[in-house]
Amino acid sequence: MRRKVPKPKVQQTVEIPLRLVEFLRYANEMIVEDDESATISSDDLIQIEEVRGYLLAYGGLIEEGGSRFSFTYFAEPKQTRKKWEFELTIEQIAMIAAGQITELTLWACSAPDCGCKFQTRNDSCFYCDYEEIPAAS
User: Fold this and answer.
1) pLDDT, tens digit (0-9, with 9 covering 90-100), for 103-137
2) What is the pLDDT of residue 8?
3) On the CB side of 123, how many CA atoms lie within 13 Å of its CA?
4) Is 114 left (phi over 0), alpha (psi -120 to 50) or beta?
5) What is the pTM of this model?
6) How far apart are CA 97 and CA 61, in angstroms?
7) Residue 112 burial by CB count (10 A; 0-12/13-18/19+): exposed, middle or buried?
8) Computed over its alpha carbons, how large is the radius of gyration of the chain?
9) Burial letters for 67-99: b for 16+ Cβ neighbours within 10 Å, e otherwise?
10) pLDDT recorded at residue 48
11) Any residues with CB less than 8 A from the CB of 136 and at least 6 apart, and which?
12) Secondary structure of the chain in the HEC alphabet?
């Protein structure tokens, strides 16, 4: 069993990696084309894989008829631990795809080896913000 013990997050402005830009270009194409995957509320209908089927990123429209999307990006190939979870508007996605936005401001775990980043300081990290509760003897 685990209990939530939130740790402080550190605000960071990071350059958007080319891998993530390419994914967001793909997402932007789906939005522009009115692809069903970009118009239905979901958390994972927009996704793309890298080499050998490893997931690069996924996301989806937060609310049907809305303009905000949530995304999860895996910062290292073949690695699911160092992930970024964030939201963008349709306009921000288009601007990133066009090269007009090149940085994101996110909240990172204070543990230097974690690598996870989030939309807000109050978001929870599966790896850092929970502790195991010892089993009763």
Assistant:
1) 999 999 999 889 999 999 999 999 999 998 888 77
2) 94
3) 20
4) alpha
5) 0.90
6) 17
7) exposed
8) 16
9) eebbbbbbbeeeeeebbbbbebebebbbbbbee
10) 85
11) none
12) CEEECCCCEEEEEEECCHHHHHHHHHHHHHHHCCCHHHCCECCCCEEEECHHHCEEEEEEECCCCCCEEEEEEECCCCCCCCEEEEEEEHHHHHHHHCCCCCEEEEEEECCCCCCCEECCCCCCCCCCCEEECCCCC
**Segment 93-105, tens digit of pLDDT:** 999 999 999 999 9
pLDDT tens per residue across span 18-45: 999 999 999 999 999 999 999 999 999 9
Convert the pLDDT of each residue in 71-93 to its tens digit: 999 998 878 889 999 999 999 99
Please report, as a single letter, which amino acid is at residue 63.
E
Length of the chain (residues): 137
Report the C-alpha dihedral over residues 123, 129, 134, 135, rounded to 10 degrees.
Answer: 30
Q: Judge contact between 117 and 85, C-beta under 8 A.
A: yes
CA–CA gap between residue 118 and residue 27 (Å, rounded): 19
Token reading at 128: 């850092």
